[in-house]
């Protein structure tokens, strides 16, 4: 997730310093089911978040990299990702982020939330795991506790 190359000119280590921005916090939502992704997007947008979407694991990684490489760095303040997606699983992404030293909070969502998955997620440093079906209010309340929206 962070650059694999050596720290060079123009590349800042994660986490980036606060920009003191007044804009809405950015939430990156990775979900392979289009209907669920749209529901998450609408719910978070209504709560005051800027939402960026990814439809699978590689799309999630690409969105993070694109944000880092943008003219004005656009990194997510919060990541919400499904555990089981094509390409990379949500757990694999969390593991890579943590290996790279990123502290971005991650909410994992899953329809396969057994006790082992919850233990693995906690060990990797995920903020929480929400088992599907979950109440959208619970997801939004968790997001707001981790990264309060701009008001």
TrEMBL record:
The keyword Phosphoprotein applies. Coiled coil: none annotated. Residues 1-23 are annotated as: Disordered. GO terms for biological process: phosphorelay signal transduction system. Keywords: Phosphoprotein. Gene3D superfamilies: 3.40.50.2300. CDD domains: REC. Residues 26-147 form the Response regulatory domain. PROSITE patterns: RESPONSE_REGULATORY (PS50110). Transmembrane segments: none annotated. The modification 4-aspartylphosphate is found at residue 82. It comes from the Bacteria. This is Response regulator receiver domain-containing protein. It comes from Myxococcus fulvus.
